[in-house]
């Protein structure tokens, strides 16, 4: 039986009425995305049509998912909200704090020893406030959610950008910062600008070496890392129905890499099969009763150009396997063309590691398709030329794959089976074969491949592909290997051509697990004690932020970030994950990965008070200690990547009043607003070039801060000359109220106390 089945029945009981009303109000057929959005309005039954990309709308999500790295700060904030229990079903998943090194058993043991303080805190907070708790080793949050909590037509939010994975089961699932999650956990509405809609029509069927992963790798190449910003991507067409449910999840998962608000598919037979295979017949039965409401209207899919803001069409019959990268997930290359491209760009052709898993590609189907390639190598006496690492998506998948002999195939190829956790995908990888900044190449089935992402080495060239393609490339040890056309030489000197991969959508014997790792919270948590050691280096109770106010003068430029500046650059993961529950300690990584436009170095900025150069956090702390605000200037798509709100909380904590950029990634802009800061964009992008290293900034009209009204900033240069720059913003009145109160959380506490 499914979790929270009564909640799901309640959602379904009102969906038809609300969708019918929305269709009447909008005056035309509806996409699936619109059906879910209009059926989850905070005020209930729709009363008006919303403008895409313009109107801010209050929604009522059905559930929330938290992962351990972001859950710490989210729950520390929730503890201040004055609530006895979460208002909607919420779960905590421990998957980020487990480092991949030796293998599943020793790695999990080490994580439980080194992070026990954090795990104990999360377990006790979850127990006290009514959250379901998934222990370390239980699995990767998004795979566990897909197996247990996702349901067609639902809306959920999660404190991880890849929450969008649940779109594979027909949800509108959106990654948010912890402060957004706190709002919903506290029983308040969740605000989102009504998204634009991008339709992707899929025709044909996948064949040969091509997989669902190649669909999103192709889309990433078309839309780029910011092409989906502010939009929901909805997949449809006969090709969509030919994909497995977990394949759909893979496509939706990597929608985060094109900046999309989320991605989704209409309910179909593959979703029903998956629900029934994961012991959720009750959801499938209920979904079947309103099946027509769980997909887009026929007219929409027949004439998509009339209903979507942009339409892309992909023929799966002719789609070719891709490897995207390095350093960005939208640099798309068909496998057969990669060798020439690599030689032209001097990318290392020797492949040192092949990594399979992460939340993107760790399903049973993924493992069996990759294993079908690995088995050929074992059977045909081909020695793998690269190291192998495997991260199963959940304990249920690991147990089932072990039972069915799938994992043994990888072990016969000398692969290391890591814990059911994120591992190398988020930099939690103690990579023994590399030291320093040696130039090298790895291939993986993950979603992100930013510089330093997997192993901290800026010269690791990471390429993203399907699990089966990663297996083939890793076995060959060559980036330019094309398994569709090239051959390998086995240990007997024979020339071998790999057969096409074959996988199983679902396990023939069904899923099984002995210990899932789930802990149900007690009904009454009032007697549960949550304590935080004041001397802890891992956890720190939060103090409310003081409002910045409407008069900012004499602020100093902290850093002018050059080029790509993701949340990995603003607040690195890897070894810094240990401080995710301690705001002051983790603030020591603030912007240390960002390239300073002046001098093109990282973590090296000028302290205008001393004339000396130092690390970004050190200079920021000096300004703050002297009562001086600072500002950060950035380029396009600033804050791309993870949902981590630490990238907003750290600057706030260290006295940054405003971030002024050419454009923002959606989640990061919202996170800045939630923390009571100013997130601004250049009205004229070329004004970025006017910013000088010694600039002092005065806000000229912040006392008139209002929706739709740009702000004027005066940049005073070292020689006394000045430039007045116009900065746009997207704040509505509620968000301005957050700013005036010092943060959204301050406003929640104020409202709860009244």
Summarize the structure in words.
- With 754 residues, this protein is α/β, with parallel strands linked by helices.
- 31% of the residues lie in helices and 16% in strands.
- The chain has 25 helices and 28 strands.
- The longest helix has 22 residues.
- The chain is globular.
- The two termini are 41 Å apart.
CATH first level of the largest domain: Alpha Beta
CATH superfamily of the largest domain: Aconitase, domain 4
Shape-level CATH architecture of the largest domain: Alpha-Beta Barrel
Number of domains: 4
* Radius of gyration based on Cα positions: 25 Å
How much helix is in the residues? 25-40%
Major sheet: arrangement of strands: 20-23-24-25-28-27-26
How many angstroms does the end-to-end distance come to? 41 Å
Average of the residue pLDDT scores: 96
CATH topology of the largest domain: Aconitase, domain 4
Write a concise keyword list for the protein shown above:
754 residues; alpha/beta; Aconitase, domain 3; Aconitase, Domain 2; 6-stranded mixed sheet; 31% helix; 16% strand; globular
């Amino acid at each position: 039986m499914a979790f929270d089945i009564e909640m799901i029945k309640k959602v379904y009981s009102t969906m038809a009425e609300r969708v019918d009303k929305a269709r009447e109000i909008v005056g035309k057929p509806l996409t699936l995305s619109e059906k879910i959005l209009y059926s989850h309005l905070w005020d209930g039954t729709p009363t008006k049509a919303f403008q895409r990309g313009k109107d801010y709308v209050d929604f009522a999500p059905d559930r929330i998912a938290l992962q351990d790295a972001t859950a710490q700060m989210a729950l520390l904030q929730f503890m201040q909200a004055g609530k006895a229990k979460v208002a909607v079903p919420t779960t905590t998943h421990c998957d980020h704090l487990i480092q991949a090194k030796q293998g599943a058993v020793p790695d999990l043991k080490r994580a439980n020893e080194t992070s026990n303080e954090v795990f104990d805190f999360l377990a006790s907070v979850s127990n006290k406030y009514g959250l379901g708790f998934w222990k370390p080793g239980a699995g990767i949050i998004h795979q566990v959610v897909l197996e247990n909590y996702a349901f067609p037509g639902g809306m959920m939010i999660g404190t991880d950008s890849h929450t969008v994975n649940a779109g594979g089961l027909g949800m509108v699932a959106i990654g948010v910062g912890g402060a957004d999650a706190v709002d919903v956990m506290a029983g308040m509405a969740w605000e989102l600008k009504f998204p634009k809609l991008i339709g992707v029509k899929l025709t044909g069927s996948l064949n040969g070496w091509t997989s669902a992963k190649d669909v999103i790798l192709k889309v990433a190449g078309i839309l780029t890392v910011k092409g989906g910003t502010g939009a929901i991507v909805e997949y449809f067409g006969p090709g969509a129905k030919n994909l497995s449910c977990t394949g759909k999840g893979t496509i939706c998962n990597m929608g985060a890499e094109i900046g999309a608000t989320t991605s989704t598919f209409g309910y179909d037979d593959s979703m029903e099969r998956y629900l029934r295979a994961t012991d959720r017949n009750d959801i499938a039965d209920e979904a079947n009763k309103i099946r027509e409401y769980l997909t887009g209207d026929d007219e929409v899919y027949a004439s998509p150009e009339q209903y979507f803001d942009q339409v892309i069409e992909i023929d799966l019959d002719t789609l070719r396997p891709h490897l995207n990268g390095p350093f960005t997930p939208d640099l798309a290359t068909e496998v057969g063309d990669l060798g020439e491209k690599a030689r032209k760009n001097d990318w290392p052709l020797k492949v040192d590691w092949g990594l399979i898993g992460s939340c993107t590609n760790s399903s049973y189907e993924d493992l069996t398709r990759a294993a079908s390639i690995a088995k050929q190598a074992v059977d045909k006496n081909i020695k793998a030329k690269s190291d192998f690492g495997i991260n199963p998506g959940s304990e249920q998948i690991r147990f089932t794959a072990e039972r069915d002999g799938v994992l043994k195939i990888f072990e016969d190829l000398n692969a290391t089976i890591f814990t059911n956790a994120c591992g190398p995908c988020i930099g939690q990888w103690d990579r023994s074969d590399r030291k320093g900044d040696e130039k090298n190449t790895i291939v993986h089935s993950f979603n992100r491949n930013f510089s330093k992402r997997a192993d901290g080495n800026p010269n690791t060239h990471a390429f993203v592909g399907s699990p089966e393609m990663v297996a083939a490339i890793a076995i060959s040890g060559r980036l330019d290997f094309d398994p569709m056309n090239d051959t390998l030489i086995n240990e007997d000197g024979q020339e071998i051509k790999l057969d096409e991969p074959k996988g199983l959508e679902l396990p023939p014997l069904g899923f099984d697990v002995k210990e899932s790792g789930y802990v149900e919270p007690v009904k009454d948590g009032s007697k549960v004690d949550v304590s935080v050691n004041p001397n802890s280096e891992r956890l720190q109770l939060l103090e409310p932020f003081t409002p910045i106010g409407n008069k900012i003068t004499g602020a100093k430029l902290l850093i002018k970030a050059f080029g790509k500046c993701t949340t990995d650059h603003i607040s690195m993961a890897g070894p810094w994950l240990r401080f995710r529950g301690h705001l002051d300690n983790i603030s020591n990584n603030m912007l240390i990965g960002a390239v300073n436009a002046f001098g093109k170095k990282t973590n090296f900025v000028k302290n205008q008070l001393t004339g000396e150069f130092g690390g970004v956090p050190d200079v920021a702390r000096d300004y703050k200690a002297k009562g001086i605000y600072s500002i950060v200037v950035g380029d396009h798509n600033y804050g791309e990547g993870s949902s981590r709100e630490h990238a907003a909380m750290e600057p706030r904590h260290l006295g940054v009043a405003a971030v002024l950029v050419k454009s923002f990634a959606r989640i990061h802009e919202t996170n800045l607003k939630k923390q009571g800061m100013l997130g601004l964009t250049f009205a004229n992008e070329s004004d970025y070039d006017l910013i000088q290293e010694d600039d002092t900034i005065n806000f000229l009209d912040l006392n008139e801060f209002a929706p739709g009204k740009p702000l004027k900033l005066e940049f005073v240069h070292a020689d006394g000359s000045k430039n007045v720059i116009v900065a746009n913003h997207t704040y509505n009145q509620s968000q301005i109220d957050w700013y005036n109160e010092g943060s959204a959380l301050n406003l929640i506490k104020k409202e709860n106390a009244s």
